[in-house]
Write a structure and sequence with these properties.
Length: 1067
C-alpha cells in the first residue's frame, strides 16, 4: 500500500491529504490539456479522490493573448493555511510565452492572381514536364561562414560546485498516493550535508557536474568547426545517420563502430521501427537480469578522465549546421532523405548514453540558461514524448531496490555522477545520495564495486519491475468491454460483421492472461447486455429500456473470464451481426450506454471500446447538429468546443476508476466529434474516425478499419498507469498536451497507455541555470502490464545549457518546434479561434526569425536569413496552415477538422510531421541503388522531393506518403513499362477511376514498388490506405491539396509565404 514520503519529509501527509480533499470538495475545475500546473495559475489540481462536482463550463485555461500566463502564485491544493509551506519560488513576472502571440497580426495577403510567375499553380491544366522558369534572380550563393558565429562553451572554471545543492523549497507533492511517482521534497534542513565534489574519478558514468579533469575535454562540444579535429575524427554529418540506416549491422553488432560513427544516433533502419535506444547496442553474456529481447552492452569503459581525454577529438558540429541560409535564394532546403533530429551538442561519451529522440526529444537541444534568453529567442521550449513506444530491445531490471533520489525521487540514470563508490549525486536536484549496498554488485559482470556499470546507469531507457510498494491495490486483470451501436444506421453500414470477425480472429491475441475478462453491450434506443456466464448453452440477452436510470442487471455475469467463457463469447460474436439486421430503430442512446458501461467496469477498470455511427439522440449526452456547411470555410464561428460537458464528466469518472474509452466513429453524417471526443481525451483513450464507412460502398475504409482493429486489439497495453515528467531544478513544466487527465500538479493519469500515443509538454526556465552545464529530463511511466505485473518505464534525456542566443538557435529542433506549436495551436483554436491560432503560428515564425535577425546577425543583409537549424521552419508552419486542423477556405468538414486536431494532440511527432508535410517520391524508376536490405528484402529508397507540381512530370508516377494515406499519382504519359509491369494494365486509359491496391506481378518493377509501399506501411501503427490516382480521379484534388509549396485558392505558395515573412521580419 501507499507509503508516506521518505524519512525526513517533514510535512505531515495527513494534513496534505485533507487539503487535497478540500480542494476536491470545493469543486476545483478539472483540468486537462491545455493544462496549467497549479503553479502557473490559481487553478487547483485535483487529487485522485476527486468527486464528481464539476464546473458547468469548459474552462478556458488559456487567455486569448498568451499561452503562458504566469501568476507567481502557488496553490498546491488550494488550502490557504498551508500556502506558506507549499509555495515554490515565484516565477519571474516577465516570463512570457515565447511564441504563439496572437497580437496585432499583419494579415497575410490573399494570393493574388497576378502573383509571381515563380509560383506554379496546381490545377487540372498544369503541364508537368514543362517546368516553370525559375526566377532569374534566384542565384544560389552560399554565404561564407562568418566568424561571428563562433561560440565556445564557458570555461571549465565556471562549472558548478555544490553551491546550489540545497533544496530550498519545502513542499511535498501528495499526488496519487502512489509512492513510486510521488515527489517528496524534504525540508531543506534535513538534507544530508553536501560537500564540494572531489575531482571526477573513474566512477563517473554520466555528466560530472563538478569540474572536469584538468586537461579533459569540455562536456559540451565546441560549436566551431575545428580543422584539426575534423581531420582526425570521423566526420559528424547528417549523412552519417543515413549511412547507418543502410547498414544497421554496424550499429548493432560492433560497439567500436557505433562509438565512432560520429554524432548521429545509431539507429536501426526504419524497417525495424522499434529502434533500440542508442545505449543498448552490443552483445553481452546472459545474466540474472531479465533481458527479454536482447542482451545489453556494458562493455564500454566507464567515463573516467582517461577515457574522456582519449576521446576528445572531433568535438565539433558539422559546418553545415553553422550556415546562415537566405531562404529567398535557397528555397530547396528539404533534404532528399528523412530529416534527422539534431544531435545534442554533448561530449560523445555522454551523448551515446542519451535517450533516443524517437522516444524523448526537446524543441531546443541547447537549453537557454535563463528565461530571459528563452524569451529573446521567441522559440517554444518543450518536450515531445513517445514513452510507451514498442521497442525491440528494452533492458528490464528486476531488483528489490529501485535506486532513486531521496529528495526528488528521480530514478538513477546515466547522467548522475558518482562522487565515489558509495555516493551518487542527483542530476535533477543535486542531492547527494547513498549507493545502496545491493547496487554495489553488478549482476551483469558479477563484479562487486562498480555501481556505475549497472544497467540503470548505462541505459537512458529502462524498465523496472516494481515491487509491491508501487501498488495501491493488486494489479487489475485485463478487462475489455465492447460497446456496439446497433441502431438502423449502424446496421446499414455493415460494420458489425467486420468488427465481430476481427474480434473472432484476434480473440486469442488480446493481451492478457488467464485473468482476462471480456464483455459486450449493444444499444440503440435501449441498452442490451449479454450474460456470458460459464455453463450457459448460449449467450443471454438482457434489455434495459429505462435509459434515464440505467442499472446493471446481474453484473457478475456480464464481464466474464475470457478463457472460461470463450465458446459463449465466440458464439455471441458470430450471431451478433445478424441479430439486428431487421431493426428499424433509428435512435441512439449513446450516453446512457456509456453510463452503463462505466458502471459495469468501475470495480476493475480496463478498456472500453465504443463503436458509434451517428449523432447520439436519446437520453443524457444527446446532441444536436451544429455544423453549418456554409460556415465551413470561415475561420470563425465554427464549433470546435464541446456542446455539453457530459462526455468530459463521464470521462473523468472513468479516469477515476481506471477506465479508458476508445471511440471508433464510423459516420457519414456530422456526429459532433468535438463533444464525443471528450470521452476519450480525458480518459486517456484514442479516437478513430472512418467517415462514410460502408461495407460495400467504401472498401477503402473497410480495409482500413480491418487493419487498424487488428493492431488495436493485439498491441501492447498498460493499465492503471500514471506518468510523471521531472526536470532539473530551475526548469518547470507548465502545460501538458495529449489524452490524459492531470491528476495532481504534474501527475498524468492514464487509465490505459498504448504504444501509439504521443505527448508534449511546455516548459519555462524558472531559475537561472547559469551554474550548470547540463540539464536532464526524466519521464517515468508506472503501469500494470497485461500479465499483471507492475512496471515502471523510465526515459532520461540530457541536454547542454547555453548562454548565447546564437547557440539556442543552433540547437533548435525544427520538427519538435513545429509539433509543439501545432499542439499549442489546437488549444488556441479551441480557446480563442481558428484565425487566432493561424495568426499565432505565423507569428511564431516571424518572431523567432526577427529575433535572430536583430540579435544574432551582425550585418543586416537583405533577404530572409535563417539559421540552418530553422531552414525548414517557414515551410513546416506553412504546411501546418494547410493542414486539415488549421486550413481555411476549403470544404473541411467539421468532424474531419476535429479529428485532425485530435491527431495532432495524440500522435507521436513522427506521424504528425508526415501528416503535415507529406513525403513525395518518384516511383516509376525505382532502382536498387542505395536500397535498404532488411531480412533479405530489398527496399528501394527513392529521394524525397519538394511538395510542388514543379517536381511532377506527366511521364512519371509519384507516390505521396501523407501518413494515414498513400497516393500514387500516375502521369498521362507514364512509361508503358510502369503501367504494365507495376499496375498490370495495358494503357493509361485502363487504370480504373478508383483503385486502392497494386497487383503482385512477377516483375522486378512490381516487387520494388510493393516492397517500398509495404515498408512505408510497416513503419506506422495505423494503416495508410493507397489510392492510385489518374488525372480524372476524384482523389486528384487531395493529392494537389498536399502540394504544400504551391498556391491554393485560399493559401499562399511557399515563395509568397517567404516574402510575407521577410516583410514582417524586416519591419
Ligand atoms: Zn534529486
Amino acid at each position: 500500500m501507499s507509503q508516506p514520503g521518505p524519512p525526513g519529509s517533514g510535512a505531515a501527509p495527513a494534513g496534505l491529504q485533507a487539503q487535497n480533499g478540500a480542494a476536491a470538495a470545493s469543486g476545483a475545475p478539472y483540468s486537462n490539456g491545455p493544462v496549467h500546473s497549479a503553479m502557473m495559475s490559481s487553478q487547483v489540481a485535483v487529487h485522485q479522490g476527486y468527486n464528481s462536482q464539476l464546473p458547468g463550463s469548459y474552462p478556458h485555461l488559456i487567455p486569448a493573448k498568451t499561452l503562458n500566463p504566469v501568476s507567481g502564485q502557488s496553490h498546491y491544493g488550494g488550502s490557504q493555511g498551508l500556502e506558506q509551506t507549499l509555495h515554490r519560488p515565484p516565477v519571474a513576472a516577465n516570463v512570457v510565452a515565447p511564441s504563439l502571440r496572437s497580437g496585432p497580426v499583419p494579415q497575410m495577403p490573399a494570393p493574388a492572381s497576378q502573383s509571381p510567375a515563380a509560383t506554379p499553380r496546381p490545377s487540372d491544366d498544369f503541364l508537368p514536364g514543362v517546368s516553370p522558369l525559375p526566377p532569374v534572380n534566384w542565384q544560389h550563393s552560399y554565404p561564407s561562414m562568418g566568424s561571428q558565429m563562433s561560440h565556445y562553451p564557458p570555461p571549465a572554471s565556471q562549472l558548478p560546485l555544490s553551491g546550489n545543492t540545497n533544496v530550498s523549497t519545502n513542499h511535498q507533492y501528495v499526488s496519487s498516493g502512489d509512492p513510486s511517482l510521488q515527489n517528496s521534497y524534504v525540508k531543506s534542513g534535513s538534507a544530508l550535508p553536501l560537500r564540494t565534489p572531489p575531482l571526477p574519478t573513474t566512477f563517473q558514468p554520466g555528466a560530472p557536474p563538478g569540474p572536469p579533469p584538468v586537461g579533459g575535454p569540455p562536456l559540451v562540444r565546441a560549436l566551431v568547426p575545428q580543422k584539426a579535429s575534423l581531420r582526425t575524427a570521423p566526420q559528424p554529418s547528417f549523412s552519417s545517420a543515413v549511412n547507418q540506416e543502410a547498414t544497421p549491422q554496424l550499429a548493432t553488432k560492433n560497439p567500436q563502430m557505433s562509438r565512432s560513427v560520429g554524432y548521429a544516433y545509431p539507429s536501426l533502419p526504419p524497417g525495424y521501427q522499434n529502434t533500440t535506444p542508442p545505449s543498448s547496442s552490443t552483445g553481452m553474456p546472459p545474466s540474472s537480469l531479465n533481458y527479454p529481447s536482447g542482451p545489453q552492452a556494458f562493455s564500454q569503459t566507464p567515463l573516467g578522465a582517461n577515457h574522456l581525454t582519449a576521446s576528445m577529438s572531433g568535438l565539433s558540429l558539422h559546418p553545415e549546421g553553422l550556415r546562415i541560409v537566405n531562404l529567398l535564394q535557397e528555397r530547396k532546403m528539404l533534404p532528399s532523405t528523412p530529416l534527422q533530429p539534431p544531435v545534442p551538442n554533448l561530449h560523445e561519451d555522454i551523448q551515446k548514453l542519451n535517450c533516443n529522440p524517437e522516444l524523448f526529444r526537446c524543441t531546443l537541444t541547447n537549453i537557454p540558461q535563463t528565461q530571459a534568453l528563452l524569451n529573446k529567442a521567441k522559440l517554444p521550449l518543450g518536450l515531445l514524448l513517445h514513452p510507451f513506444k514498442d521497442l525491440v530491445q528494452l533492458p528490464v531490471v528486476t531488483s528489490s531496490t529501485i535506486v532513486r533520489c531521496r529528495s526528488c525521487r528521480t530514478y538513477i540514470n546515466p547522467f548522475v555522477s558518482f562522487l565515489d563508490q558509495r555516493r551518487w549525486k542527483c542530476n535533477l536536484c543535486y542531492r547527494v545520495n547513498d549507493v545502496p549496498e545491493e547496487f554495489m554488485y553488478n549482476p551483469l559482470t558479477r563484479v562487486y564495486g562498480e555501481p556505475h556499470r549497472r544497467p540503470e546507469v548505462q541505459n537512458a531507457t529502462i524498465e523496472f519491475m516494481a515491487p509491491s510498494e508501487y501498488m495501491l491495490r493488486p494489479p487489475q486483470p485485463p478487462v475489455y468491454l465492447f460497446v456496439f451501436d446497433v441502431s438502423h444506421n449502424a446496421v446499414e453500414t455493415g460494420y458489425l460483421n467486420s468488427v465481430c470477425q476481427s474480434l473472432l480472429d484476434n480473440l486469442d491475441l488480446l493481451p492478457g492472461n488467464t485473468r482476462t475478462k471480456i464483455g459486450f453491450i449493444t444499444f440503440d434506443s435501449t441498452i442490451h447486455f449479454y450474460s456470458l456466464q460459464e455453463g450457459l448453452s448460449q449467450p443471454q440477452m438482457l434489455i434495459i429500456s429505462d435509459i434515464d436510470d440505467v442499472f446493471i442487471p446481474m453484473p457478475e455475469n456480464l464481464l466474464v473470464n475470457l478463457h472460461e467463457s470463450k465458446e459463449l463469447v465466440q458464439g455471441l460474436l458470430k450471431t451478433l451481426p445478424q441479430m439486428f439486421t431487421t431493426s428499424l430503430e433509428t435512435q441512439s442512446a449513446l450516453g446512457p450506454a456509456l453510463q452503463a458501461a462505466f458502471k459495469l467496469m468501475s470495480p476493475t477498470g480496463g478498456r472500453m471500446t465504443v463503436f458509434q455511427t451517428q449523432l447520439p439522440t436519446l437520453g443524457v449526452g444527446a446532441l444536436k447538429p451544429r455544423e453549418e456547411p456554409n460556415h465551413r470555410s470561415s475561420a470563425k464561428e465554427i464549433h470546435l468546443t464541446p456542446s455539453t460537458d457530459f462526455y468530459k464528466k463521464l470521462a473523468l469518472d472513468c479516469s477515476g476508476q481506471q477506465v479508458a474509452v476508445d471511440l471508433f466513429l464510423l459516420s457519414g453524417q456530422y456526429s459532433d466529434l468535438a463533444s464525443l471526443g471528450c470521452i476519450s481525451r480525458y480518459s486517456a483513450g484514442s479516437v478513430y474516425y472512418y467517415p462514410s464507412y460502408h461495407h460495400q460502398h467504401n472498401p477503402v475504409q473497410v480495409q482500413k478499419l480491418h487493419k487498424e482493429l487488428q493492431r488495436y486489439l493485439t498491441r501492447k497495453i498498460g493499465f492503471e498507469a500514471v506518468m510523471r515528467i521531472r526536470c532539473t531544478k530551475g526548469l518547470s513544466i507548465h502545460t501538458f498536451h495529449g489524452n490524459f487527465f492531470v491528476r495532481s500538479t504534474d501527475l498524468l493519469s492514464l487509465p490505459n497507455v498504448n504504444p501509439d500515443a504521443g505527448y508534449a509538454v511546455q516548459m519555462s526556465v524558472e531559475e537561472s541555470l547559469t551554474d550548470t552545464q547540463l540539464v536532464s529530463f526524466q519521464s517515468a511511466l508506472l503501469y500494470t502490464s497485461s500479465k499483471g505485473e507492475r512496471r515502471i518505464r523510465v526515459h532520461t534525456l540530457c541536454l547542454p545549457v547555453v548562454s548565447t542566443l546564437n547557440e539556442v538557435f543552433l540547437g533548435a529542433d525544427v520538427q519538435a518546434i513545429s509539433g509543439l506549436l501545432a499542439n499549442m495551436a489546437v488549444d488556441r483554436s479551441v480557446t480563442a479561434s481558428l484565425s487566432d491560432a493561424r495568426d499565432a503560428l505565423v507569428n511564431a515564425v516571424v518572431d523567432s526569425l526577427s529575433a535572430y535577425r536583430s540579435s544574432v546577425l551582425s550585418n543586416q543583409q537583405p533577404g530572409l536569413m535563417v539559421p540552418f537549424s530553422l531552414r525548414l521552419f517557414p515551410l513546416f508552419v506553412l504546411a501546418l496552415l494547410k493542414q486539415k486542423s488549421f486550413q481555411t477556405g476549403t470544404n473541411v468538414r467539421l468532424d474531419e477538422r476535429i479529428f485532425a486536431m485530435c491527431q495532432v494532440k495524440n500522435q507521436p511527432l513522427v506521424y504528425l510531421m508526415l501528416t503535415t508535410h507529406p513525403s513525395l517520391y518518384r516511383v516509376d524508376n525505382l532502382s536498387d541503388e542505395g536500397a535498404l536490405n532488411i531480412n533479405d528484402r530489398t527496399i528501394p529508397q527513392p529521394p524525397i522531393l519538394q511538395l510542388s507540381v514543379e517536381n511532377l512530370s506527366r511521364d512519371g508516377a509519384f507516390l505521396m506518403d501523407a501518413g494515414s494515406v498513400l497516393m500514387l499519382w500516375v502521369g498521362k504519359n507514364c512509361a508503358q513499362n510502369f503501367l504494365s509491369q507495376v499496375l498490370g494494365v495495358q494503357n493509361y486509359a485502363s487504370i480504373p477511376q478508383i483503385r486502392t491496391d497494386l497487383p503482385e506481378l512477377d516483375t522486378p518493377e512490381s516487387a520494388r514498388t510493393i516492397a517500398f509501399i509495404s515498408w512505408l506501411r510497416e513503419q506506422r501503427p495505423f494503416f495508410p490506405v493507397l489510392y492510385v490516382i489518374r488525372d480524372e480521379s476524384p482523389m486528384k484534388a487531395n493529392f494537389l491539396q498536399n502540394m504544400v509549396e504551391d498556391r491554393t485558392e485560399s493559401a499562399l505558395s511557399y515563395y509568397e509565404f517567404l516574402l510575407h515573412i521577410q516583410q514582417q521580419v524586416n519591419k
